[in-house]
Each structure stands twice: as C-alpha cells, then as structure tokens.
Amino acid sequence: MAGKVIDVLLVEDDPGDVLMTQEAFEHNKVANRLSVVADGVSAMEFLRKEGEHADAPTPDLVLLDLNLPKMDGREVLEALKSDEALRRIPVVVLTTSEAEEDVVRSYSLHANAYVTKPVDFDRFIEVVRQIDEFFVEVVRLPSR
Q1: Per the count of CB atoms within 10 A, which of 11, 47, 52, 80 is most buried?
Q2: Which residues have a Cβ under 8 Å from the Cβ of 17 and sit 6 or more positions away?
Q3: CA torsion 66→15→10→58, rounded to 10°?
C-alpha cells in the first residue's frame, strides 16, 4: 500500500488555503493527484460527475472545508454520506473552525476525521503530510 497514488478532492474556497495545500503536497513530495473545487455545489457535481466534471476521477479522499459558498461543507458532508454511491469515500473536515458544535455535527454526519487548519505554514505542511501518510500508508481505502 505504501507509495500508492490516490485521488484527493480539496473542497476549499480560500485561494490562500488552496495554495498552501498545493504547496504542502509539493513540499512533502506527495504524489497524490489533487483536484480542487471552490464551493459545495461544485463539490457535489464533481463527486457525481455532472456537467464540466463528467470526466472527474472518483476521489479516494475528500478534504472538506466547512465554510463554503453556495452549499456549505456540512451540507456537502450530509449529501455525500447520504448517497449510496459516495458514502464510502473518506472525508476529512479541514477547517479553521474550532467550535465544538462543528466538531460534533461533522462526526454526526459521518466525517472520518476533523482537523483544524493550523495558521502556521510549517505546521500546516506537517498536518497535510500526516493526513496523506495516514490515508495512503496506514489505512486501507475501499476499492473504487
């Protein structure tokens, strides 16, 4: 399993956080394919392969921000985990929110992990590396 390349969908509307995640992948020499969408509606279209996302890869992992335009991350999580075809995709909530209610609600909606984004770039890189290492080298992901 080590060294396996997975498809990761980042659902993030903040261009700075997108850039930091891309840089963290590059810095950590993460070979995984990273796709990015900037709102919840686009995330669901990507996951369901609709419209411009008809040829999108099925992600092995979703990194999901909670505070998104059009459809927030909580709604995306609920829709994704309610969909028979998508519910097995692991979702890591990666957000700035430290609110206990967001943590509890995310797990109630079947998030696989909840990670608060570090503001420090070096710490952010380390967190992305740990997420990658865990989902690529430690756990076994379901087959597509």
Answers
A1: 11
A2: 65, 117
A3: 130
The residue type of 59 is: P
End-to-end CA, the chain: 15
**Amino acid identity, residue 69?**
P
Closest CA to 29 of 10, 5, 57, 55: 5
Long-range CB contacts for residues 126-131, cutoff 8 Å, separation at least 24 = 127/24, 128/21, 128/24, 128/25, 128/28, 128/30, 129/24, 129/28, 129/30, 131/63, 131/92, 131/94
Between CA 96 and CA 75 the distance in angstroms is 17
Question: Cβ distance 21 to 63 under 8 Å?
Answer: yes
- Give the pLDDT confidence of 97-125 residue by residue, as tens digits: 899 999 999 999 999 999 999 888 889 88
